[in-house]
UniProtKB/TrEMBL annotation:
Species the sequence originates in: Duganella flavida
Gene name linked to the record: recD
Protein's name according to its UniProt entry: RecBCD enzyme subunit RecD
Keywords assigned by UniProt, alphabetized: ATP-binding, DNA damage, DNA repair, DNA-binding, Exonuclease, Helicase, Hydrolase, Isomerase, Nuclease, Nucleotide-binding
Listed GO biological process terms: double-strand break repair via homologous recombination
Enzyme class, UniProt record, top EC level: isomerase
Record domain UvrD-like helicase C-terminal: where: 569-614
Similarity annotation: Belongs to the RecD family.
């Protein structure tokens, strides 16, 4: 049974259209129950979608156009579909068919650990269903739990007193002070979500929230255990640095009323989520979990858009119920590579606010502000604990205008901003040749390579840190991995161009000046997925090479030959650039996006640029198409959060 179907699956796998895993998964499901070709087709699609970040398969997609979801051509899809034979006609028929399969647990029916779960009109791998229901339940519980009673007048008065100290100036033009509101809202429950684009003051706000938490902790003030974390090491280091600076500044303002410097000094370093939870080699399980929770009262997590479903579930399980969780992130950025778009789902009401009357009166009591009527509504408990910061302080000018236009899906406006080339801050070449790009790479990477050329044998680590910083001032970001305009092709071409210009000498895999990105966590050498380092001569051993990584104000190095999972990083994917910022960011789009490039990717690339943004593509239409397309990740989280 299903012979013809699997022959199609194998052909598509050979043609590189399907993951090998997808066919293998369907065969496994067939081996543990009946092998209806319809169920097999659903399994292949479910597995493919999981590989693309979706946490479930919506049955409505089975009836609409799964080909579009997968970026397949009509022909490929038609052949696979016809090999299935009878294709159920509507969602209800699909539901009945799947619910009758022994490998599927229809929620509410007999649960005997079936590998697939059917929850309403969504089909899941059991693991994702568990993670999604756990995340929904845990965040709802946090949003509802510990909420200040409506008559907690003493508490609200104290919060207001401190908020007036911490935010002494009303925002420009007397507009709503969302930063102040975000602090008030986070004080109300055990969950606070602060979202906003780059430079909207998320870190500025959370530093004040921390001060507020310390100030109102009473006798627990000195013992309040605060942990800072982020999905990547770089983002964690940035968070810590910004919070330290902000708290130091605040300490001067609040004076002796609050010993902020001492309290901040006790906070310790920011960690990656993996390290916070105690990742262990060769297992997905963490040292901290529901049975051995973290020892914290407040956990602040930055770059939350990068947290995937499984990690969010692990994080929530490891966090004691009485601890406060603060999530910071930009909901419009690309979601994690792995399944789930958790922050996007949690923030689906953020733009509109959807605040209940209780929230509005609480906010007024704590901040003295009336939230404009347009933000009132009937949102669920998560919406009540979420605040979107709406004004960017650092991100005005053409780069900000471009990001706004892309976010709004306005391709015409985006092109207008790009073409204006305003102040030389944005530039675009829509019929780029590879020589244009290589010339840009030469200009962008020359400064750090020159510094390396002048590096003397007895230079100290401050000099090396300077070289690392110089490298961080320019980066080429690609939308795709493969091909001439993808990461792999470009890294080769750039190496050759820099070599031809005499800026580097490539003698083998490792050479002086090679930038590398770590692609897997390596506990033995202490380097983590996404870390970026530069290869420099080993001062202690002539002829040997070390890779240097910046760590705040200092550097750390590992012998090059000890690093196994790395790739050259003159060009990197937009995905991997999340959490980083470069003075000049050049984004490269391929000749053909294959229908897979979307607005979130373009927005994320643009918002990596601090001062200058250049966009290069051999085909400008790819940009227009991408801006017109949104990434929709199938997930049941929104539904579960609101139900
Ligand atoms: N209310 C405010 N008054 C004065 N300056 C502010 C205010 N809010 C933010 N800033 C300043 O604006 C800049 C950007 O703020 P911040 O770094 O907190 O933004 P962010 O949203 O965390 O940015 P990113 O997403 O890039 O991390 C900082 O220099 C900060 O000090």
């Amino acid at each position: 049974m299903g012979k013809e179907f699997f022959a199609q699956v194998d052909a598509l796998t050979e043609a590189g259209q399907l993951r090998r895993l997808s066919g293998a998964f369907a065969r496994f499901i067939a081996s543990v129950g009946e092998a209806s070709p319809q169920l097999m087709a659903a399994c292949v699609l479910l597995s493919e979608l999981e590989g693309r970040g979706h946490s479930c398969l919506l049955l409505s997609e089975l009836n609409a156009d799964p080909a579009a979801l997968l970026g397949w051509s009509g022909d490929e899809w038609r052949d696979l579909r016809s090999s299935v034979g009878n294709w159920p006609e509507n969602v209800a028929d699909w539901r009945d068919l799947l619910a009758a399969c022994t490998q599927v647990w229809p929620v509410g029916g007999d649960n005997v650990n079936q590998p697939l779960v059917l929850d309403g009109d969504r089909l899941y791998l059991r693991r994702y269903w568990q993670d999604e229901t756990h995340v929904a339940g845990a965040v709802r519980g946090r949003a509802l739990g510990g909420v200040l009673a409506a008559d907690a007048e003493a508490e609200t008065a104290e919060i207001r007193r401190w908020l007036d100290i911490l935010f002494p100036h009303a925002p420009r033009g007397g507009s709503t002070d969302w930063q102040k509101i975000a602090c008030a809202v986070a004080m109300r429950g055990k969950l606070g979500i602060i979202t906003g684009g780059p430079g909207t003051g998320k870190t500025y706000t959370v530093a004040r929230l921390l001060a507020l938490l310390f100030a109102t902790a009473g006798e627990r003030q000195a013992g309040l255990r605060v942990a800072l974390a982020a999905p990547t090491g770089k983002a964690a280091a940035r968070l810590k640095q910004s919070i330290d600076i902000a708290l130091d500044e605040l300490a001067g303002k609040v004076g002796s009323a609050l010993p902020l410097r001492e309290l901040a000094a006790r906070m310790g370093a920011a960690r990656t989520l993996h390290s916070l939870l105690g990742a262990r080699p060769d297992t997905r399980a963490f040292q901290h979990h529901a049975g051995n929770q973290l020892d914290v009262d407040v956990l602040i997590v930055d770059e939350a858009s990068m947290i995937h479903l499984e990690m969010m579930s692990a994080l929530l399980a490891a966090l004691p119920p009485q601890a406060t969780l603060i999530l910071l992130g930009d909901k419009d950025q690309l979601a994690s590579v792995e399944a789930g778009a958790v922050l996007g789902d949690l923030c689906h009401n953020a733009e509109a606010g959807e605040y209940l009357p209780e929230t509005l009166s609480y906010v007024e009591a704590c901040t003295g502000q009336q939230v404009p009527g347009q933000y009132a509504g009937h949102g669920g408990p998560i919406a009540q604990q979420t605040v979107m910061l709406r004004e960017s302080r650092r991100f005005g000018g053409p780069i900000g205008a471009l990001a706004l236009a892309v976010n709004a899906g306005d391709a015409g406006k985006a092109v207008e901003v790009l073409r204006s080339g305003e102040d030389g801050k944005v530039a675009w070449t829509d019929l780029a040749q590879s020589s244009d790009l290589l010339q840009l790479a030469l200009t962008g990477y020359r400064p750090y390579l020159q510094l390396i050329k002048n590096l003397s044998e007895n230079a100290d680590d401050i000099v090396r840190l300077g070289i690392l910083r110089s490298f961080e001032s320019f980066r080429i970001l690609c939308a795709v991995r493969e091909g001439e305009w993808g990461v792999s092709g470009l890294n080769d071409a750039i190496e050759q161009r820099l070599q031809a210009a005499g800026l580097l000498k490539r003698t083998g895999e490792w050479y002086v000046g090679r930038p590398v990105m770590v692609t897997r966590n390596d506990y033995a050498t202490g380097v983590f997925n996404g870390d970026i380092g530069l290869t420099l001569p080993d001062p202690a051993r002539p002829g040997a090479l070390r890779v240097y990584f910046s760590e705040g104000e200092t550097v750390r190095s590992v012998l090059a030959t000890r690093l196994r999972n790395v790739e050259t990083a003159f060009a990197m994917t937009v995905h991997k650039s999340q959490g980083s910022e470069f003075a000049h960011t050049a984004m490269v789009l391929p000749k053909d996006g294959g229908g897979m490039l979307a607005r979130e990717l373009i927005y994320t690339g643009i918002t990596r640029a601090r001062d200058y943004f250049t966009l290069l593509t051999p085909n400008g239409q790819v940009l227009l198409d991408a801006i017109g397309q949104r990434t929709q990740r199938a997930s049941g989280l929104r539904h579960l959060l609101d139900s």
